[in-house]
Amino acid sequence: NAGVTQTPKFRVLKTGQSMTLLCAQDMNHEYMYWYRQDPGMGLRLIHYSVGEGTTAKGEVPDGYNVSRLKKQNFLLGLESAAPSQTSVYFCASTDSFNQPQHFGDGTRLSIL
Amino acid sequence: EDQVTQSPEALRLQEGESSSLNCSYTVSGLRGLFWYRQDPGKGPEFLFTLYSAGEEKEKERLKATLTKKESFLHITAPKPEDSATYLCAVHLNNAGNMLTFGGGTRLMVKP
Fold first, then answer.
1. CA nearest to B44 within chain A
2. Contacts of A44 (CB under 8 A, 6+ apart)
3. Does residue B51 carry a pLDDT above 70?
4. Which of A1, A36, B74, B100 could disulfide-pair with B63, CB 3.0 to 4.6 Å?
5. In chain B, which residue's Cα lies nearest the Cα of A41?
6. What is the distance between the alpha carbons of residues A65 and A102, in angstroms, rounded to a whole number?
């Protein structure tokens, strides 16, 4: 049982480059989330989705876009990467808004 | 502004030395409080959910409690394998299904 799988696990980008982070879950969950985790800042919500075809902004959405074309996948895009986006990105999913979220193991992204 | 604060930021214990981690929140309309454990290089792993003041949950050496303003994670006779960062998060009574996380407590248990 894979749970939540994030691809890639590590990536180094140059300022201005673009990339897409993929999150896939095999639990048939409706809700999916993208967080970033920075030292001393805890986990902060970037964007989330309450079902296929829906997306919404979280606490820190600027500089990111998302898409949920298939229920099992949630994509996070960086159109023009900036050093401030260096972080560890976590994806999570849950089957109900008040149930625990299940997390992937993160994507470590460095922007030079 | 809704806030979640965890203390201490770091805690060093000797094996067998019991202690408590604190999660205090200044939010309105709490719908649930979650505790997670995070190991280095891994995503958070769910431990407990608490929904109302007075509620308690236990799992092995861990016990979580909830009041109207804070939650405690009590660790009884910890072992080195309990070393991790412990995160709490609150689910607010508003639209969006969002969790607000505290900054975490890094626990180190020495043999």
1. A103
2. A35, A36, A37, A38, A58, A59, A60, B101
3. yes
4. B74
5. B103
6. 21
Which of residues 48 through 67 in chain B touch A, CB cutoff 8 A? 49
pLDDT above 70 for B2: no
Among A89, A105, A96, which residue's Cα sits nearest to residue A13? A89
Nearest to A50 among B31, B34, B97 (CB): B97
Which residues, other chains included, contact B74 with Cβ-Cβ below 8 Å and sequence gap of 6+?
B18, B19, B20, B62, B63, B64, B65
Q: In which band, very low, low, confident or very high, does the pLDDT at A42 lie, cut at 50, 70 and 90?
A: confident
Kindly indicate the confidence band of residue A97, based on its pLDDT and cuts at 50, 70 and 90: confident
Do the bridges between strand A56-57 and strand A64-67 make them parallel or antiparallel, or are there none, so unpaired? Answer: unpaired
Distances (CA, A) of B105 to A9, A23, A52, A61, B58: 25, 27, 35, 26, 19
Residues B109, B83 contacting (CB under 8 angstroms): yes
R_g of chain A, CA atoms, integer Å: 13
Q: What confidence tier does B1 reach under pLDDT thresholds 50, 70, 90?
A: low
CA B1 from chain centre, in angstroms, equals 21
Cβ contact, residue pair B41, A31, below 8 Å:
no
A77 is written with which tokens? 């895009």
Q: CA A39 to CA B42: how far, in whole Å?
A: 15
